Amino acid sequence: MQDNPAASADVAKNRALLQQLEQLLGHHRVISDAQRNEHYRTGFRSGEGSAVAVVFPETLMQLWHTLEVCVEAGAIIIMQAANTGLTEGSTPNGHDYDRPIVVINTLQMNSIHLLGDGAHRGEQIVALPGATLHSLEKLLAPLQRSPHSEIGSSCLGASIVGGIANNSGGALCQRGPAYTELAVYAQVNADGHLQLINHLGIDLGETPQEILTNLENGTFIQVGKLPHPTGARVRMASDREYVARVQDVDADSPARFNADPRRLFEASGCAGKVAVFAVRLDTFPIPERTRTFYIGSNDADAFARLRRGLLTELPSIPLLGEYLHRDMFDLAADYGKDSFYTIEKLGTRRMPRFFALKGRIDAWLEKQTWAPRYFSDRLLQRLSRLLPQHLPERMLDYREKYQHHLIVKIADDSIEPAQQWLQGFFAHRENTGDFFACDAKEASKAMLHRFVSAGAAMRYQAVHCRTVGELLPLDIALRRNDMDWEEKLPAEIADQLEYRLYYGHFLCNVFHQDYILKKDADPAAVKKAMLKLLDSRGARYPAEHNVGHLYLAPDAQTSFFEQLDPTNTFNPGIGKTDKHRRCCNCG
Question: How far is 45 from 399, CA to CA, in rounded Å?
Fold first, then answer.
């Protein structure tokens, strides 16, 4: 049999690339064995692909030199931090790329620098690419400040830069999506040259060596403001316009969604189309007082009026408004019970390590012929049946009475006005339902129950995979003026579903909709029909996860990706775009 010269040349090039990476980083920081690096090539929920290597630079200069090596070799670069995304956006997707792939994991570069002096210390921070939300929460707590996101992602160990790159949403409706216009990042220009761009608003020097060394060490020559390219204002370190936007309840567009052109800016929403070295972000004061109200109703129209009133008739809008449908309440109470107890007893500080350990165990078990599929989930579910009832009596009472549940958290001077407003709201005959003010224990358990609901459908599908079909998760943003928020499915779709589960960020009109399909349902056909229905409602999707490899990026987002990455070097194929190299001006 005659050798294939092209294949032999590719093997030689890949071997040379690996040698260069190992010389730069050391053998222990370059994993080329497919079994050993499988965890980093596999998405958190779905998706996987091949890669020549997964590498782990420890310093920003190592990251820069790694990028140089990859660009010189013509390799594809996929940036990855915690790999907690739900849409396959930070791993390879399949085996049909036209170039070798190197996955660069950034978690080792995890420093956070506090900006400001005296009473202003910590009002802004600079985070390197591996820094996590959990680490930032710990750093800010003594300063009585908090990061952008506080629910969900921090428990999973999600990175700060990952949230920015993916325009991640969140429960805190005063803060909007994760966003900044201040960053240091590297991109490959139309000539095929790697360039480092400092738009942090901080003088770090001129050369990559100076910029990245000073950045890593927190040696900031001068911290200032940076004009926005429009010249109309200075660049923002958070979405400071979001409160006014979400309060515009008569607007015929969503408050936020992933592909919103208003919030696609350099590192923000880049989806890995550049290599982000650092972001500068606002932090937020922790309220002096908070109170949580638990609200129930059987009338979707009453909840629609409730949303408008909470956003427009209080001194300040609530901190959050989290929704659960009764079906989701029930599923989370059963299939999220062990997660509830784990988080409640161990605390959020240990959860990133716990989830990482479970992921590695699951990956090992998948390779064992003796272990049934989803063995750890089945075991944990069986053990959870031994645990006592964990939900407060008043929440269980509302579960019996009402199908729609809302958790509203109010701060400081708005607490008393909010309680009076809710009393007046439900005094009207048309607004059927009721509410109660939670004590501290009830408030904590209500929010924890809402948190574990996000994984309940995954657990149910895993445990019952022999009798049910696939899980189809969607996150959608409805228009701000949309009063008809409750989904009504036609029979041809409803008949394909075992479960339809609704939860979300109600005040933002953003919903997570998890559908567990029947065993014989066609997932692709059901998803196509679902998206067509959402289009007819004027919804946008995904709302707060990136398009990843699961959603088609709209034209404006595709243009943004091409502007950031004209040669298609970084994360090609994202948003179902082309995976092949674009030559541009690089010969």
Answer: 29
